[in-house]
Amino acid sequence: MQLPKLTGSVLSGLHCFLIAADQMSFTRAAEILCLTQSAVSHKIKNLEDSLGVQLFIRQPRKLLLTEEGKRLKAVVAQNFGDIAHELRDLKTLELSGDFNVSVPPTFAQTWLLPRLKHFIDKYPALRFHLRTRNDLVDFQTESFDCAIYFGHGKYAGLHSEKLMDESMVPVCSPQYAQEYYLHNNPDLLMNCMLLHDAAPWARAGRNDEWQYWAQTNGIQLPENSCTFDRADLALQAAENGLGIAMGRHSFVAQQLKDGRLVIPFDMAVQSPLSYYVVCRQDATISPRIKAFQQWLHSEIAEF
Fold first, then answer.
1. pLDDT tens per residue across span 6-35
2. Residues whose CB falls within 8 Å of the CB of residue 15, separated by 6 or more in sequence, listed in order
3. How far is the C-alpha of 43 from the C-alpha of 12, rounded, in Å?
4. Rounded distance, CA 162 to CA 276, Å?
5. Which whole number is the average pLDDT over 186-200?
6. Which pTM was predicted?
7. Residue 78 to residue 96: CA distance in whole angstroms
């Protein structure tokens, strides 16, 4: 394999290659890097030309790594994450510069965004970059400072700090509850349309939240259902009278207060999962992450 000079374009190409190799998709890599698919393809082609080897076998709707690609991925993945984070930390040792955070979509929309101005006003020198996704971050290949996960809190090789627990309860529009005589009648749930968040947490099944609630309460669920890839869409569908959704307390507090959603039967259950701030083990001393964690805890205390 011919070794090129480590120019900026080559380093950029290596970063792009590592993410594309991890995702095995130029489209997914483009989403993570906030680039177009053609830009990712162009970077990979330039890197292959610089190295003088083919890194990917491009098939219709499928990518495969060549043997050279597998070797390069193993070498680059071992050190690239450390280099990227160290370079950024050298520039931003204080509370300034870029701060990249990954957050689940509905948590970002319903809980974090209404409060985010408080954090930005408190630390005006930080450039806050929010990206939403349900899957887990690869801190070795992706340049995130930290992430908020809804999960069990145990992530190999990473540090996690618990933010808050969560409870779940069925919610629907006032009109839907009245039409189906749901108030204090959980048995009539069998006549309803269930609205599912099909990705409530990383690697979850499409009806895991409803199943956990039903098993805890000894309730039988109907077959009639509709699924969404985000909890806020399921809740909006419930608000519009499509059916009944499983609502997390942090997601539905405002809709309940406004009367847009109601709890037809008060059978809340404690979720088996909680919210955590997650980062690399060597990033726990980062002033930016510490400031973000402290701010989150203060907002949660008020919530």
1. 566 777 888 889 899 989 999 989 888 888
2. 80, 84, 141
3. 8
4. 4
5. 91
6. 0.68
7. 28
